[in-house]
Amino acid sequence: MASNAPVLILLGPPGAGKGTQARMLEEDFGLVQLSTGDMLRAAVASGTEAGRKAKAVMEAGQLVSDDIVLAILKDRMSQPDVAKGIILDGFPRTDGQAAALDGLLSANGQKVTAAISLEVDDEAMVGRVSGRYTCACGEGYHDQFKQPAKAGTCDKCGGTSFKRRADDNAETVRERLKAYHAQTAPLIAYYEGKGVLQKIDAMGAIADIRTALGQIVQGVAA
Ligand code: AMP
C-alpha cells in the first residue's frame, strides 16, 4: 500500500451500516473495502482450515480468534489492489487486533488515518440485522429499509440470486451485540486517545449517513 494511502476504520455494532457505507465509500473515493466478516465467510464456504475453525464460533455470534483473523487480513493487505487506501469494516474488533494493525501499518511508515464510530441505538439493531439480505454480487438489501426497485432483481447487477447470513437471526444478533460491547467498543477510547476518532449519528437515512461520512473522508483523506 502506498505510504500516504488512507486507512479508515468503521466502528459500530452489527447492523450499524458498516458494510453498506464501506461499499459507498469504495464508489465515492476509490478505496477498497476490507471486511474480515466477508473474508471469514468465504473461508467457511471454501472449507479452508481457518474456515472450519471459524464456522461454529461465527454461528454462535462470538469472535473468531485473533490469530485466524490476523492471518486472513495480512494476506489480503498484501494484495496490490489495496494500494489506493482501505476501509476496514469489522476489523479491528479486539485490543490485540488494534495493536497488530498499528504494527502492520508502522512497518510501512503508516498509521490509521481515521476511525469513524457509527453511533446507533442497540435496540434498533436486532430489527435492522434480522431483515437484511444480499445479492450474489455483494449489494445489500433490507426487507424494510432498502428493497430493490424491481422486486427480486438486484438494482446493481440485475441478478436474481439473494442470500441471508446464518448469523443474522435475533438470538445470534444479541450475542454479537454482547461481543461488540465487551470486546470492540473499548476501541472507541483507544482511537480517541490517538486523536483519530470521529463519531457520526448513524440512525438516519442511508443517503444522509453517506454524505456525513463523505465529508469526514474528504477532510482526512483528500
Ligand atoms: P461481520 O460480517 O463483520 O458482522 O462478522 C461476522 C462474524 O465474523 C462475527 O460475528 C465474528 O464471528 C466474525 N468476525 C468478523 N470479523 C472479525 C474480527 N475482526 N475478529 C473476530 N471475529 C470476526
Broad structural category = alpha/beta
Order of helices and strands: EHEHHHEHEHEEEHHEH
| Total of DSSP H or I helical runs spanning 4+ residues | 9
Residue fraction in strands: 5-15%
| Terminal residue distance | 16 Å
How is the main sheet built?
5 strands, parallel
Shape: globular
Strand order of the largest sheet: 2-3-1-4-8
- Please compute the radius of gyration using only Cα atoms: 17 Å
Low-confidence stretches: none
Mean pLDDT, all residues: 94
Residues in helices, as a percent range:
40-55%
**Record field, number of beta strands:** 8
What does this structure look like?
The radius of gyration is 17 Å and the shape is globular. Strands 2-3-1-4-8 form a 5-stranded parallel β-sheet, sandwiched between helices. It is built from 9 helices and 8 strands. The two termini are 16 Å apart. It has 222 residues and is α/β, with parallel strands linked by helices. Residues 14, 36-37, 40, 57-58, 61-64, 69, 90-91, 93, 97, 167, 176 line the site of adenosine monophosphate (AMP). Adenosine monophosphate is lined by residues 14, 36-37, 40, 57-58, 61-64, 69, 90-91, 93, 97, 167, 176.
